[in-house]
Amino acid sequence: MIYFTPGPSQLYPTVAHHIQQALANDICAISHRSAAYKAMHQHSVEMLRALLQIPTTHQILFFASATEIWERLIQNCVSKQSVHFVNGAFSERFFAISQELQRPCSKIEAAWGEGFFFDAEVRRVLETHRTLDILNFTHNESSTGVMQPLSIVYEYAAANPTALISLDVVSSIPFAEVDFEKIDATYFSVQKGFGLPAGLGVLIASERVLEKAISLENQGISTGSYHRFSQMWKKATQFQTVETPNILGIYLLGKVAEDMLNKGIDKIRTETKEKAARIERFFHEKGNYSFYVKNKEFRSPTVLTIDTLRPSAESIAFFKQKGFVIGDGYERNKGKQIRIANFPTHQVAEIADLLGF
Amino acid sequence: MIYFTPGPSQLYPTVAHHIQQALANDICAISHRSAAYKAMHQHSVEMLRALLQIPTTHQILFFASATEIWERLIQNCVSKQSVHFVNGAFSERFFAISQELQRPCSKIEAAWGEGFFFDAEVRRVLETHRTLDILNFTHNESSTGVMQPLSIVYEYAAANPTALISLDVVSSIPFAEVDFEKIDATYFSVQKGFGLPAGLGVLIASERVLEKAISLENQGISTGSYHRFSQMWKKATQFQTVETPNILGIYLLGKVAEDMLNKGIDKIRTETKEKAARIERFFHEKGNYSFYVKNKEFRSPTVLTIDTLRPSAESIAFFKQKGFVIGDGYERNKGKQIRIANFPTHQVAEIADLLGF
Asked: What pLDDT is recorded for position A7?
C-alpha cells in the first residue's frame, strides 16, 4: 500500500533507514541532558534552518503536535484579542481552542473551499479592535484543499504591524516558502510534508513572540507551566527541551531535513507543482470529477480536493484495490469528495502509478 | 553500551523487532481515525489493562509526557487545594507546576532521601484545608531513589475519602503493584520501566477524576483545551485520541506490555527484587560506597542511589570504559552519587556483567 492520505501519510523513503541508525546508535537511550543529545538536537535545528532558510532571529521550539501549538500560542500570546481567519475545519478548531482557554477571540470567515482576499471590509473589522494580539492564518486548510496565497497574509501583516502573525503550514511545509521576517509564528506537525511518524510539532517563533509571552507573564497572566515560551526558549538556546521530548522524532526530523537539503528544496518544490499539475490534468480529462476549489489562485498543490459525482467510497475502494490509499472528504464533505496528498514523500513514479492504472 | 541510566534507559530487548513490524505494517501511515488505528489502540489498552490489572472503572489516557500529565491533572482537578508530598526534585517540580498554573496549592515536605509516614502532624495540616481536591504522591522519586511504601499512601487515601489521590509511578512501573481501587490518577512516561522511546505519557484515571474535571468545567473554570479530560475520556472509550497522537509509541507500548505479560509480571517483579539485592550486596561489600536512602523501607529497587566517597565522575567513567552507562547524582547530589536503574529491560546477566568486571 502507498498512502496518499493528507496526514498521517506515507513515510519519507529514508525514514526506515534512519530508524535503524537511531537504534544502532542508542539515540533512544541517551539522556536528554547529555552532550550527545545536545549535538543531535543542534543538528536537527541546523538542518531545518538551512532547509527552510530560517533566520537566526527565530527560535525553533518542539511540541507534541500542532494541536498543542494552537493551545500554547493562545496561552502565551493573547490577553486582548486573537483574530482567527476561518475557512475550514482546522482553522475553526484553532478558534475553538481560543474559546476553551477563555481568552478574548473572534473570527473572520470565508466559505469552505474559499480563501481570504485583502479585503476592505475585513480591514474595517480589524480596526474595531483597540489591541490585536495575534492574527491567525492557515496556509493550507487540509479539510478543504485551500492554499491561502502568502502575499495576502503579508498584506495583513503590513497593515497590522503591532499584531503577531501566526501561520499554520501543517500540510504545506516544506513546499511552503515562508518569508519568516513577516511571520512571527509558523508551525507544523511532522507526519505530513516531512513524512515522519506522528508525535512532534514544530514552532518557528520570532523574538516578538517571546517578548509577548514575557509581557503576559509580567502582567501575572498564566501562560501555562512547563511549556511556557519563556522557559522553552531558554532551553532551546542550549539545544535542549524542558521535559524529556520525543527524542526519536527530533532525530528523524533532522535526518529527513538533511536528505531534503541534499535533494534540493527547489527541486522538491518544482516536483510538487509538476505532480499536482499531473493529478489535476488527469481528473480534468477523466470527467465525473471536478475540483472543489474553484479559484485556481487558492487551489492547493499539496492537498488536492476533488468532488466526486458518485459516492467517494467507490473511488477510494477502486484506488485501494490498486494499492493506493487516498483520503475521503472531511466532515461535511465526507462521501462527496476525495483528497489526495502530494507531499515530498510521494515520488513522481508513484503519482504516475496512481494515475496510470 | 548498555544504559543503566534512570531514564531514558536501555530500550526493552524486543523494541527493535516491534519497530520493524510497525514499519512493515504501515503503522505510522494509517489514519488515526481508521478502523486499523482503533484496533491497534484497543490492543495496547487491553495489554496494559491485563499486565497491570487495571479495573474497567479506570480509563487509560495518552499524553506526550509525564510532565504534561502534571499540568493536566492540576488544570482538570484543582480549584480549591492541591497538596503535594515533596521529597525530591520531581515532586518539587510538580508542585511548581501547580503554582505556575495559579491554582491553590501547598506542599508537605520530607528531606531528600526520606519518605513519608502516616504522621499525626501531617494529618493535622491536611485537616486545616476545608476542601482538598487532590493529594499528590510520588511512588519513586527518581532524583533520590526513595520508594514511598504504597501502604502509607493508602492510609492517607482512606483518611481523606473526598480527595483525589494521584501517584507518580514514572520510574517504578511496571514493578509497582498499584491497587487502582485506592488511587485515582496513576501516571508514568514510557522511557523508563517500559524501555520505550520517549514521547508518550500514560494516565490511568478513575471515574472520580472525570467527575471532578466535569464539575470544574460546569463551574466555568478553564480546564485547558484539546486535552480536557472530558474530551479525552470520550475519545478513549472509542479507542481514539483527540489529536493525532504518537501512534508508534502507543503501538510499541502495547507490544511490550504483551511481551511482559507473556514473560509474567510476577517474574518481572521477583527478578527486579533479586537484581536490586545483588546490586546492594555488591556495593555493600565493595566499601567506598553507602546507600543514600538509609531507611530500607524506603529504598527503591528500581533506582538505586549510592553515595560515592570519591567524585562520582570516577565511578561513571570506570563503568563507561566497561561498556555501561550509569547515572550521576541529581542536582544537589551531582558529583557525590551514582544512580543505577534496575528496570525490566535490564537482564539478570547484564547486572552480573555490570558487577562482575
From this structure: 82
Q: Tell me the shortest Cα–Cα distance from B241 to chain A, in angstroms.
A: 12
If we measure between CA atoms, which residue out of B213, B306, B260 comes closest to residue B14?
A: B260
Chain B residues whose beta carbon lies within 8 Å of the beta carbon of residue A74:
225
Reported ipTM exceeds the 0.95 cut: yes
CA distance B34 to A353: 24
**Cell output for A55:** 533566520
Q: Which residue of B has its CA nearest to A6?
A: B31
Between CA B160 and CA B80 the distance in angstroms is 15
The pTM of the full predicted model, rounded to 2 decimals, is 0.98
Alpha-carbon span B109 to A297, nearest angstrom: 63
DSSP-based three-state secondary structure for B301? coil
Residue A107's DSSP bridge partners are A84
3-class DSSP string for B88-139? CHHHHHHHHHHHHCCCCEEEEECCCCCCCCCCHHHHHHHHCCCCCCEEEEEC
Q: For B186-223, what is each residue's pLDDT tens digit?
A: 999 999 999 999 999 999 999 999 999 999 999 999 99
Round the CA-based radius of gyration of chain B to a whole number and report it. Answer: 20
Which pLDDT tens digit goes with each residue over A282-304? 999 988 899 999 999 999 999 99
User: What does the alpha-carbon distance between residue B284 and residue B280 come to, in Å, rounded to a whole number?
Assistant: 6
Q: Which residues of A touch B222 (CB under 8 A)?
A: 100-102
- Tell me the domains of chain A and their CATH numbers: 2-9+264-356 (3.90.1150.10), 15-261 (3.40.640.10)
Identity of the amino acid at A323: G
Q: What is the DSSP letter of A258?
A: H
Q: Which residues fall within 8 angstroms of residue A120, CB to CB, at 6 or more apart?
A: none
